[in-house]
Amino acid sequence: MRGRKQPDPGLAIHVDDYRALKRAAKLFRQKGANPAAGAAAIAKPPGTAGRPAGPGDAGAAGAMDVTIAPQQKRFRIALSFPGEHRPFVEQVATRLAESVGFDKVLYDKFHEAEFARPNLDTHLQRLYHDETDLIAVFLCAEYEQKKWCGLEWRAIRDLINGPQAATVMLLRFDKSEIPGMFPTDGYVWIGDRTPDDIANLILERLRINAEGAVAHGKSTA
User: Fold this and answer.
1) I need a labelling partner for 5 at 20 to 30 A (CA). Which of 126, 146, 173, 212 fits?
2) Is the separation of the CB atoms in 214 and 63 below 8 Å?
3) Domains of the chain: which residue ranges?
4) pLDDT digits (tens, 9 = 90+) for 134-161
5) What is the pTM of this model?
6) Superfamily assignment of 75-215 in CATH?
């Protein structure tokens, strides 16, 4: 269009790995552009520019684009919850899996064959602690009472107490006291929100974390 500045074709770079993303973000800064916005554009699959988003696109209506940074860990999202709230959390898990992939969501029903093993406790703790970009913790009275939640909470608490605290997202079904939580800890109040509402908030947080990693020149690992 007349009078509009045409995009620089030299910026049309497809990012396949994190090192390329860092180089691309540096190039955007040299061009005076927003590096986080540039990273989001670069991460789009080839051939998608200039066409409307389709049902399979992360940016399609009703789906949050979470491809702003390359994945470095096995799971994008892990869910920690007591069985009493499984019907609600399962709907959240399904909604998340439709956006990022079923194999990228740490939810027990998606990995039954893998989890039928001895020493599952230490295996799960490693997955939560070392192999997940974002852990969504569904807190309530039952959470504090459950053995498996307690095992997961130990790994999660270690993250909270270290430099990876931002990889933990707290959500509450009620205001029960949870050991290790303090009044200054922020959380999402579930209340009358739907599973879709909660899934969208989790995806938004994943995107925020990814944008922060790109802006600071770090991976999501």
Assistant:
1) 212
2) no
3) 1-51, 75-215
4) 999 999 999 989 999 999 999 999 999 9
5) 0.67
6) Toll/interleukin-1 receptor homology (TIR) domain (3.40.50.10140)
